[in-house]
Amino acid sequence: MAKKDVNVLTFVRLSGMMFLQFAIWGAWAVLIAGHMENLGFTGTQISYVFGTTAIGSIISPIIAGWIADRLMPAQLFAAISHLLSGVCLLIAWKQTTFPMLWLMIFLHAILYMPTIALTNSVAFHHMGHSDKFGNIRVFGTVGWIAINWGLSLYLRYWEGQETNLPHVGDCLLFGAIISFIMGVYCLTLPNTPPSKEAKNPYAFLEAFSLTSNRNFAVLLIISFLVAIELPFYYNLTFLFLTEAEHGVGLMESSANFAMSLGQVAEVVLMLLLFPCIRYLGMRITIFLGILAWPIRYAIFAIGEPVWLVIGSQTLHGICYSFFFVGGMIAIERLSPKDIRASSQALLLFFTNGLGMLVGHFVSGRLHDYFAYPDGGHAWAKIFMVPIVLTLIAAILFLFLFNERKYQQDADALTNNQGDTQEE
Predict the structure, then answer these.
(1) Fold type of domain 7-198
(2) Structural domain boundaries of the chain?
(3) Fold of domain 202-413
(4) With 80 as the cut, is the pLDDT of residue 86 above it?
(5) What pTM, to 2 d.p., does this model score?
(6) DSSP label at residue 353
(7) What is the tens place of the pLDDT at every residue in 296-315?
(8) How big is the chain by its Cα radius of gyration, in Å?
């Protein structure tokens, strides 16, 4: 029996859910680095705050799997999580010391990160065709762009006032407000009850058996290596763009807007992903996605002209769409149908979890190590690390990933699953 297409009203409701879900994260994820620098935090302390999201990603499969699959509907658990995480962001907004700010962001991350999987589950459950998930997920990127453009205008307003009070920390207040709105909105979402057959919260460990497939193992290892460089972008780029001494010297509002260009490009590049996979193959598509990173960091290391540094933010679209989304598709096609969800959870565990956790610690320490005594940082030396790392990852992937074997394995799984359905 064919699945029904999602109706217009449900599509709008699920799209609004994705918009708010990622607007929360987008509200503070970029600007909080500048806020912490204004508070006098060290690079290591900044990395520890950012590292809370990686910890949340590591334990979120357990939290979401145990509670949502056993105790309550997904949308209800998401509502409670967002309301409580909003309180954490609101308290964090008023903190000026590292221990309390870290604690509040940590509690927020523990509550927020599981809701990403929960909103995905709600969307998959109600949209009819899973291959159309991207049509709804793209509104999450739109939400990230919208809140950052709004905050850029907000900061631009205060930059024009005669006051020395920094307002970049208000990103936490905006994140809290959107969290409260999202918490209430979740209560209006279509009911998504617990599974009749409760899943193992550690089910993603089942996918480890697939590492016997060389291409699957290569995807996992390279994804881990590439994820290490992500904190160099998310944690340090805003500081690099706004630093007057040795950075680009942009105003906070302009730097925030510049970084949002990556998400704008992401929306556009999503449209080119499937044609590239079809005509270039998965190996070349993912390779190009990895290669965009060292090119961007090389432009950062040179640091001029300013228009080129700002324009290089759009390379994020290739990085994310071709590498991360391309990798998710490859993992999906290399996994048997009954453990595809476990395979995706394993990929997220290695990227958003372990890979980014390592990257947070490394980037923070390098930020402190390459600080000049009289102010500013040796950004070229800092960015040399992700340049080397991503170049190595790109070369390794190009030589280790076998396109022909990948196509054979993917086709074999598709044919086997088709035969099983016919039986």
Answers:
(1) Growth Hormone; Chain: A; (1.20.1250)
(2) 7-198, 202-413
(3) Growth Hormone; Chain: A; (1.20.1250)
(4) yes
(5) 0.81
(6) I
(7) 999 999 998 999 999 999 99
(8) 21
